[in-house]
Amino acid sequence: MTDTYLTDKPDPKITRASVGQFAQQYGVLIIIVALLIGLSFASDSFFTARNLLNILNQSAPLAIIACALTLVIIGGGFDLSTGAIFGVASVSAGYIAINVDPYLAILAGPVIGLGLGAINGLIITGFGVHSFLVTLATSLVYRGVAILITGGALIPVRIAEFSWLGRERIGMVNVAVIVLVLFMLLMMFLLNRTTFGRKVFAVGGNEEAALLSGIRTNLIKIMTFCLSGGAAGLAGVIAVSRISMAEPQAGMGLELEAIAAVILGGTSIMGGSGAVWRSVSGVLLIALIGNGFNILNVNPFFKDLTTGVIIVVAVALAASASRSR
Amino acid sequence: MKNIMKLAALTTALSPVAALAQDDQISIAYLASSSQNGFNQSIYDGIQRAAAEYDNVSVEIFDGEFSAPVQFTQVEDLVAGGRFDGMVVTPNDTVGIATALEEATAAGVKVAATLFPIGPDLSNMQPQVEGLVTTVASDPAIGATKQAEEVVEFCEDRDPCKVVILIGQLVFPFDNVRYEAYQSVLGAHDNIEIVATGEGNYSPDTSLNAMQDILQANPDLDVLLSNADQHLMGAEIAILDAGLDLEEIYVTGGGLNQIATDAIRAGQWDSTIAMLPRSIGEAALHALVASVTGEEVEPWIDESTLGDVPAIVTHEWLLENPEFEAEWQG
């Protein structure tokens, strides 16, 4: 009887801890599943392959930025310039597509982004200024560059050799979604399967200890900002090719959406822990809310309110779970 | 020159020659809602062109960054600096900026509002700020109503006629006025059903996403009604990607930029509300100079009278006017 009793009634502390751990680990996924179920009941149009691929396609640029931004944040940094880099890459790609070569334009976006990210990294490490301040300042500079390139006007880029990236499909799947999956796998590989990834965790966890153990922390930081810039550039090119239009104000506010998605996914804002898949989950959660509102034709006045409440619930869930561990 | 002639009829005894005769330098500030925006750039282009007709008028542009507080502070700073005789304002917040502009007019600075009236009533074009020289604008409800009436005409033989609305942002008072006008006109017809409303935020990208979502639940729309051409640029891609025939759908926007002009001329879109930002800028500058030099100025210059274009520009009108070019690119 005693053995049976012990086996059938688990220790309540262990149960709370394991539930807490599970909620913290998968809180964002739990909310995504809840939304998927709720929206499926609310509209027949929601849970269809077409709509789910539509959500992924719409989210591709933001998710690409969030993937690389995850590495920056795990490494203890902060990048507020991704929206502006997105803008510069957008208009540069648009300009190059029209005036030089559409394929070169597709390549140019990520390269320009990578270069601008490198500038961020060099200033941060060279002057020892916090990345928050540096990227806040460079975002203004980069946004100014985007405006100078276009003079504030839109650049129509209706060229098939350019727009395929954002609009073509392979089977049912948009090329942009395939690019997102490949990019996400690349970032996951870099973070979890390479010495570079381990160094990123080390730098974000304890920079001084990382330095003392021989890690070139400045180089690691510069590399994460290069990746973040390159991702913003790639996202910018995809966005321009989707709408066949380059606009200097493209990506305005995108940096905050990307940061929100990364934090919402559960990556620590203090650095040292996190995962790429978490950030993509954060992006998808935000996208689901927007998609649900449009499909259900809910008054847009409630959209921000609902998004905010769901983010608070997700963050609170993770925080309370963390405390109960 | 045609616009100048029209303005001469609107402003009493307006005469650039008279201004030429006087030696005093006149400095005018243009407070753009955002200097990084094509529409505002075109207004400034008009201001510069008009200023070039005088020997003694200089102009400067200030970037409002699409922010009401930024623009409010700019007005205060410019009044405190005392460098300018007049201001042309394209307001970010039509109500909030009124207080700052009252201070400006009290300090003797001449103020002209463009695009929207300044004050709580968006349909009242008469000065709601004491001392305001003129408002170069038209009631946003008028264009929206005409647009909706075109939709009613298109829907005459369709029952149900499914309409999707893409509006800028419903938190903007002027977009609310337009949206209410759409609802008022379309709601009076039983055969017309507004199946979805999305916010385009004046961005092709945002509009593309919104339209893609809307099409998931409403793949058989008859009309796409929007207040901005930028929305149509994105929505058009979503419609084509969904395999729908754009020519079967009545597509109407607002702004009359060159991209819209080309699309309507090519028969891809059906119509757009005419807007003439360069002419608005020219009219505002001339009115301010006239006021600074002591002339009487009409308190309201109706934007819709500034050009030779109809309130709603259609494919047919553009075919009849092949030389027409929009005043702004997009």
TrEMBL record, chain A:
Entry keyword Membrane: yes
Gene Ontology cellular component list: plasma membrane
Compartments reported by the entry: Cell membrane
Principal location: membrane
Sequence intervals crossing the membrane: 26-47, 59-78, 84-104, 111-134, 140-160, 172-191, 219-240, 275-293, 305-322
The entry's keywords: Cell membrane, Membrane, Transmembrane, Transmembrane helix
Membrane-topology annotation of the record: Multi-pass membrane protein
Matches recorded under InterPro entries: ABC_transp_permease (IPR001851)
GO MF term set: transmembrane transporter activity
Protein's recorded name: ABC transporter permease
From TrEMBL, chain B:
Domain of life where this protein originates: Bacteria
Annotated InterPro entries: Peripla_BP_I (IPR028082), SBP_2_dom (IPR025997)
Stored CDD domains: PBP1_ABC_sugar_binding-like (cd01536)
Pfam families (alphabetical): Peripla_BP_4
Signal sequence coordinates: 1-21
GO MF annotation list: carbohydrate binding
UniProt keyword Glycosyltransferase, yes or no: no
Subcellular location, record wording: Cell envelope
Gene Ontology cellular-component terms listed: cell envelope
UniProtKB keywords: Signal
Domain Periplasmic binding protein: 28-296
Family: Belongs to the bacterial solute-binding protein 2 family.
Protein name as it appears in the record: Periplasmic binding protein domain-containing protein
Organism name: Limimaricola cinnabarinus
Lineage, opening ranks: Bacteria, Pseudomonadati, Pseudomonadota, Alphaproteobacteria, Rhodobacterales
